[in-house]
Amino acid sequence: MRTLICILILSITAFAQEAPKPNNDNPVTSFNKTAFNHVQGWILSSAEKMPEENFNFKPADTVRSFGQIIGHIADAQRMFCSGVLGEQVAPRNVEKTKTSKADLIAALNESSTYCDKAYSGMTDASGTQLTKFHGRDMAKFNVLTANVMHMVEHYGNLVTYLRIKNIVPPSSEQPPAPPEKK
Q1: Number of domains forming the structure of the chain
Q2: Is the pTM for the entire model greater than 0.85?
Q3: What distance in Å separates the CA atoms of residue 148 and residue 153, rounded to the nearest whole number?
């Protein structure tokens, strides 16, 4: 019985650490940051799961390779988030210049860390401030939402590429089984 109680306590503690805490002061931006982190995790896990020899794989000549999609996401995240942060950043052209799995994952991690500043610094009130994005005035919150939408769009591409290579995408993986009852 003590063992079961210990397992239950450890399971509850682990779940509580993983589950995002609701932010009642900033529910809109809190959800947006949670969505960003969730999709970013799927994209990073996709890159980690795909073998390096398949980073140049593309199902048709008219589309990006798996690695180019990872590079494109890294480049785009910096573009979206730099406007929200009010910074001018030079394009890195990761999509066109990096081909190794290690370099692409490093670029993806760097852009995620950069964007995390934008999401973490946002409140529901500051999210309504306008910024220039593609020559238009947009609320900062909407720019970050567009970033998540863009990431989801390309995660869909990655899912297809993974499935073609018989790799289960991160979003389709089975969650760990609950502890056995004794």
Answers
A1: 1
A2: no
A3: 9
